[in-house]
Amino acid sequence: ISVEETTIQAVVPVTGAHVVATITDPSGDTTSITLHEDPQNPGTYSGTFNESHEPGTYTVEYVIDGDRKSV
């Protein structure tokens, strides 16, 4: 599972934010990954989750710490 191309936007892109995705697997275990901003596409954050070992529904919760800034 790839957590990619997540754009965090209000009126303008949110750049320079600290973004964490917490993934909950079907058994309820959680894994947190830090998403990194794409320097070629400000306000777009991505990361990779390689722990999808069981079938079922995975949920993702994002925590974003940043200010709205224009690019």
Throw out a few tags for this protein.
0% helix, 5 strands, mainly beta, single chain, 71 residues
Helix and strand composition category: mainly beta
As laid out across the biggest beta sheet, the strand order is 1-4-3-2-5
Beta-strand percent range: over 45%
Gyration radius (Cα, Å) is: 13 Å
Q: How would the global form be characterised?
A: elongated
Q: Please trace the helix and strand order, writing H or E for each element.
A: EEEEE
- Calculate the mean pLDDT score and round it: 82
Taking pLDDT < 50 over at least 5 consecutive residues as the criterion, the unreliable ranges are none
Cα(first) to Cα(last) distance is 29 Å
The largest sheet is: 5 strands, antiparallel
Helix proportion range: under 10%
Any overview of this molecule?
This protein is 0% helix and 46% strand. The chain has 71 residues and is mainly β. A five-stranded antiparallel β-sheet has the order 1-4-3-2-5, with no helix packed on it. The chain starts with a strand and ends in a 6-residue tail after the last strand.
Short description:
The protein is mainly beta. Helix content is 0%, strand content 46%.
